[in-house]
Structure to design on (598 residues):
């Protein structure tokens, strides 16, 4: 088997040139399975060079083999060695994600494979400085800008990460597309020993993280006092920078309140961090006061007492924050001893809304007695409200603004309720019209049947030879007379219901149209009942003389209509208002399912 690749400088960019060939795969199923199994025999005497064999995602033989490795062993490098002997350029060849075999080996934690690939890179080019080629392979990044070290740390393979750091301790390993540097990942995942290893061995490691944060932000979140000290010692003041929201590590500590020792270390290293503000103008002291972390407040004030003078963009100082969050009970000891009695704290300072700390206390949700207790403890027993008209004016203005806001909210709620009601009525109106259209069809059918029954007449008409020609044959029958009456009632009621349904779409007010609908629906019910009775009496009139038994049976069967309808109405009445009656209750339940039924 001949070698299909000449020795080329991987830095020239030609190593990954096969990746530019088409998008179709050039590796058969047989070769793919052989690559996964590490069967070198399948790749002997093939026509294509090994660096031209790849899948649709540009994975080469080595990509497939390294991904398929289940258990680590030295024997696993034999196949890799034989492939590289035949085609050395496969070592740097990338797939569609710009991942080299080293990236995959680091991701899956194959330390023997990682060590072997680095060694082969060192031994491959004798004309280059030994080790330079291997280091360039360590620097190669994927589409997400991940190096092999990023991959190892992201997947918690610490032995692989240690090996990669040892191979090139001078490289900074910059951030990937997610903004993560290897140092940040190690700190965030609490790989303490590895972090210390990076800080000890690497000359100038990159320390950035996502959202503009640094490894120091991640360290204080992990409560790592030792790591904080090491980071400050190694990287100095450059790591004290703020994130994209303006939060320094001190802001995070003040917010979480988890590590007073870290606060002390930060302040000892550079007191300036206590004066750094976020994008809203808040310092670490403001955050600690708002969150009620009195121990951190005491630490900050003892190191930087003049930071009490700082206010945010709204004009709030630390006292405003403490009072607005109602953390007074837990903060009184700090406030009285360190803050309120400090000569540089102006207890009467006003913010941009012309309110001071007293106004905040008065505006709180506590009871009047509680408010007065807090004011006396903060401002003293002899505090005179009337001595400062500005306080009262500000308070009254504050009350008026609160009332205005409440009034605006009330009006907004009323408008919203009115809009919701209109939308609900519109939806009901649409459902009502659809139901009316269905009932209109039913009313029309009843009218048509009643009309046809009245014209045809049961029993027929008297011929021209008999008395009263053209009259009904059964006109003297009582059953026939009942038929005529019931049929007429059915015809009239269904006709009126039909006209009422035609009028419903033209009525804009929902409840008026609903009443029309209920009345028309009731008329249809009565028309249906009359139609059943007309049918029963008509059948009886025709069959009474010739087959009285059949006539009686037919009438009995017709009369079963009434108990069936009663059962249906009784079931509906359980969930319908009594005032609407049985029939109307059914309709109300169908059209207004959101109305509470008794």
């Amino acid at each position: 088997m001949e070698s299909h690749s000449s020795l080329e400088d991987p830095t020239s960019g030609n190593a990954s040139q096969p990746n530019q060939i088409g998008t179709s795969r050039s590796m058969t199923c047989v070769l793919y399975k052989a690559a996964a199994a590490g069967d070198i025999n399948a790749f002997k005497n093939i026509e294509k060079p090994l660096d031209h064999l790849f899948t649709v995602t540009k994975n080469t033989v080595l990509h497939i083999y390294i991904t398929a490795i289940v258990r680590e062993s030295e024997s696993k490098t034999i196949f890799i060695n034989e492939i590289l002997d035949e085609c050395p350029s496969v070592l740097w060849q990338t797939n569609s994600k710009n991942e080299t075999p080293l990236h995959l080996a680091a991701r899956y934690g194959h330390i023997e494979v990682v060590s072997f690939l680095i060694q082969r890179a060192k031994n491959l080019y004798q004309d280059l400085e030994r080790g330079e080629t291997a280091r360039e392979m360590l620097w190669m990044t994927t589409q997400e800008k991940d190096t092999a070290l990023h991959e190892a740390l992201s997947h918690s393979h610490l032995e692989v990460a240690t090996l990669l750091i040892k191979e090139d301790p001078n490289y900074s390993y910059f951030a990937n597309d997610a903004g993560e540097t290897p140092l940040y990942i190690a700190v965030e995942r609490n790989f303490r020993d590895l972090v210390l290893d990076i800080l000890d061995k690497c000359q100038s490691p990159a320390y950035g993280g996502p959202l503009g944060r640094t490894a120091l932000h991640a360290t204080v979140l992990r409560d790592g006092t030792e790591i904080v000290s090491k980071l400050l010692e190694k990287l100095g003041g450059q790591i004290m920078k703020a994130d994209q929201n303006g939060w320094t590590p001190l802001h995070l500590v003040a917010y979480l309140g988890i590590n007073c020792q870290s606060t002390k270390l930060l302040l000892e290293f550079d007191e300036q961090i206590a004066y750094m503000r976020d994008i809203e103008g808040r310092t670490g002291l403001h955050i600690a006061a708002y969150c009620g972390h009195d121990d951190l407040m005491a630490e900050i004030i003892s190191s930087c007492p003049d930071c009490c003078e700082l206010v945010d963009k709204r004009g709030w100082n630390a006292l405003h924050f403490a009072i607005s969050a109602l953390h007074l009970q837990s903060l009184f000891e700090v406030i009285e001893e360190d803050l309120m009695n400090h000569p540089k704290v102006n207890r009467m300072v006003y913010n941009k809304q012309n309110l001071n700390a007293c106004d905040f206390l008065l505006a709180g949700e506590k009871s009047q007695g509680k408010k007065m207790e807090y004011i006396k403890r903060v401002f003293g027993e002899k505090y005179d409200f009337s001595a400062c008209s500005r306080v009262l004016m500000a308070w009254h203005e504050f009350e008026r603004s609160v009332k205005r806001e409440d009034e605006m909210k009330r009006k907004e709620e009323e408008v919203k309720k009115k809009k919701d009601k209109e939308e609900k009525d519109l939806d009901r109106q649409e459902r009502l019209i659809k139901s009316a259209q269905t009932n209109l069809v039913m009313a029309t059918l009843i009218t048509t049947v009643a009309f046809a029954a009245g014209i045809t007449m049961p029993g027929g008409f008297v011929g021209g030879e008999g008395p009263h020609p053209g009259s009904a044959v059964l006109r003297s029958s009582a059953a026939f007379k009942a038929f005529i009456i019931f049929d007429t009632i059915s015809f009239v009621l269904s006709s009126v219901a039909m006209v009422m349904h035609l009028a419903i779409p033209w009525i804009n007010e929902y409840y008026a149209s609903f009443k029309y609908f209920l009345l028309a629906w009731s008329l249809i019910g009565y028309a249906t009942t009359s139609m059943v009775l007309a049918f029963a009496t008509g059948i009886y009139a025709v069959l009474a003389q010739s087959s009285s038994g059949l006539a009686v049976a037919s009438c009995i069967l017709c009369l079963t209509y009434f108990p069936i309808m009663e059962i249906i109405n009784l079931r509906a009445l359980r969930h319908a208002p009594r005032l609407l009656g049985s029939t109307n209750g059914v309709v109300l339940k169908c059209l207004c399912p959101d109305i509470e039924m008794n």
